[in-house]
Amino acid sequence: MQFNPFGKDQSKISRVGLGCWQLGSDWGELDLGEAKAILKASVDSGVSFFDTADVYGGGRSEEIIGSFLSEAGLQDEIFVATKLGRFGDLYPDNYTSQSVRARVEESLTRLKTDALDLVQLHCIPTDVMRGDEVWSILDSLVEEGKIKRFGASVESMEEALLCIEKAPGLSSLQIIFNIFRQKPIRKLFDLAQKKQVGVIARVPLASGLLSGKFSVDTTFGASDHRNYNKDGAAFNVGETFAGLPFEKGVALADQLKPMVPDGLTLAQMALRWILDYDAVSVVIPGATRVEQARGNAAIADLEPLSPELHQSLRDFYKNEVRDHIRGPY
Q1: Nearest-5° angle of CA 119, CA 30, CA 113?
Q2: Which residues form the signal peptide (predicted)?
Q3: How many CB atoms lie within 10 A of CB 52?
């Protein structure tokens, strides 16, 4: 496993983390035993960064992580990034000191800790980000020791740049970044490095499209967001399949397969591609099986992709992908 300095205080975190949305909900059924086995397999493979949110399963993801870390005595070893802003009475226009603090206290309880490592605003409305109040609340929570750092999870480059401008204390930005979503390379990475803002790359496999295992006939369960949000019916369309129509995404993944270097899978190429960008502090693929968790962690030990392949993937994005993405990005 490789480790990276993260944010303004340069905390050391693993370059491959674990996205924990699936521990709570929206990716099909996952029982408690399997969820904890995935967490253990990740830690055993060198992962030291878990990303979750209070809204995942109505707090279930945080509860599972808190229980696991407490039982294993790992609270001081694992960096847990959580989010607030979409759960409880906050969204879309109640980001008051009282309501934000209540959500922080609930996360503290579920994660069984006295101070949250990182609290990220969870895709809150852009107009709220433009104001001063929510940033002032987060600054106060850091001063009081309730949270150690704060960041933001955003949907678009406009929001990412706005957060850097509005919040001098910003530690991190979480963005959608994968072979199908390459805009941050030009718009954000240099500025984030200059400002010592960590970049957390989410949706790295485009909700599984970049595994190369889907066909146009693939179906998903009723509780899986790849079913009910594939066209943005429940939340931002970019969160599912990176904003691509499913059938088009399958076709594009098939076009990528001949580019995969010998000895790698499409998923390995896609994750290694992300880690080849130094501005990315950590990539957070999810896992619904122990084998996936171990395989994802091993990406950090792979050799970087060739410059020629990087150029081919840039051209692929510009010529084949960019015009098909839906939603703000």
Answers
A1: 30
A2: none
A3: 29
Domain 3-324 listed as CATH 3.40.640.10: no
Would you list the DSSP string of 273-316?
Answer: HHHTSTTEEEE--B-SSHHHHHHHHGGGGSPPPPHHHHHHHHHH
pTM of the complete model: 0.95
Q: Are 283 and 210 in contact (CB under 8 A)?
A: no
**Are 115 and 146 contacting, i.e. CB atoms less than 8 angstroms apart?**
yes
Question: The tokens of 80 are what?
Answer: 């847990």
pLDDT beyond 80 at 246: yes
153 pairs with which residues across the strands? 122, 174
* pLDDT given for residue 14 in this prediction: 97
Helices (H) and strands (E) in the chain, counts: 14, 10
Q: Give the three-class secondary structure for 101.
A: helix
Intra-chain end-to-end CA distance of the chain, in Å? 31
The domain ranges of the chain are 3-324
How many C-beta neighbours within 10 Å does residue 124 have? Answer: 23
325: Cα separation from own chain's centroid: 19
Residues 6+ apart with CB under 8 A from 213: none
CA angle 212, 201, 91 (to 5 degrees): 110
